[in-house]
Amino acid sequence: MKVLRLCALLLWVCTTAGAGTAWAADVPFLSGRVVDDAEILTPATRERLAARLKVHEQKTTNQVAVLTVPTIAPESIEEYASRVFAAWKLGQKNKNNGVLVVVVPNDRRMRIEVGYGLEEELTDVISGRIIRNQMTPQFKSGNYDAGVEAGIDAIVALLEDGVEPAGGEASRSASSKVGFAGVEEFELPPWQMRILLGAFIFGVIGLFTIIGIMTPGVGWFLYLFLIPFWAMFPIVVVGVKGALTLLTIYAIGYPIAKLVLSRTAWYEKAKRDLKTKGTATIGGFTMSSRGGSGSSWSSGSSSSGGFSGGGGSSGGGGSSGSW
């Protein structure tokens, strides 16, 4: 039916619309273990870090690198760090034991990107703790040298000696960034991108939600079909807790609204017309039933001669932080 095809198209559009349009920041040349393109570190700090990371690599074979860039907006820190890591190919090929620390001062963002081989040691939770407790306090005071060195010291201490960074008060004060069951809160993109994504996501799934509520037959199918959309897509706009709140509102509000509307005169008339005439028009859309078990939507009047498509389809073919 047409509603199903439109919903499938929605899934593909929502997951690919922003992929090719966002401007991508350049990946700098890997000139050393410390690439300070943002020029926020003193020469002495760069030398100390490079020497420390060289000794660490000789001792463990782990490759740890530091990158600073002025800005990557509007690209997310996660996407950028992943691109840099892939381009630089940090870590031994058979061990995947690389770590990348990215600091973007103008965007006030940072990330610790961890290779597959070190994920069990340098977990997402520990990486987030290093960012919050060792790096963020120094960055807030404008001391990038101390912040980067503290982060590297914590990473090296963990990988060499198994010493985990202390939680302390900073960890507890950052509890607002920890989601349910200890899961790290999703890092949101810049507010400009959130506005654009929100207008698109809520506009599209909101439209289909309204259609489902207004549709006598297929509306309950749409209710179930849209649950994963309301569960996942709002996360990039309102975060994990916000998305859970919206999903709860949708899960409770949709059935209530549909039951209330089902008692109105126009809903009963549409339901009756589908059974007797095979078509019903609501809000400029024409519903046509097929075999009495469902319905499909089309725009315009019902004088189209009952034409519909033949069923063909197109090919269509770590942890982050801020301060």
Radius of gyration: 26 Å
Percent strand = 5-15%
Largest sheet: 5 strands, mixed
Helix-and-strand structural type: alpha/beta
List its salient traits.
elongated; 323 residues; 12% strand; three-stranded antiparallel beta sheet; 8 strands; 50% helix; five-stranded mixed beta sheet; disordered N terminus; alpha/beta; 11 helices
What is shown here, in short?
It is built from eleven helices and eight strands. It has helices at 2-16, 43-60, 77-88, 124-140, 144-161, 168-173, 191-214, 219-225, 227-232, 235-261, 265-276; strands at residues 34-36, 63-68, 98-104, 109-114, 279-282, 285-289, 295-299, 319-322.
Task: Write the topology of this structure.
Layout: H1 2-16, E1 34-36, H2 43-60, E2 63-68, H3 77-88, E3 98-104, E4 109-114, H4 124-140, H5 144-161, H6 168-173, H7 191-214, H8 219-225, H9 227-232, H10 235-261, H11 265-276, E5 279-282, E6 285-289, E7 295-299, E8 319-322
Parallel strand pairs: 1-2, 2-3
Antiparallel strand pairs: 3-4, 4-8, 5-6, 6-7
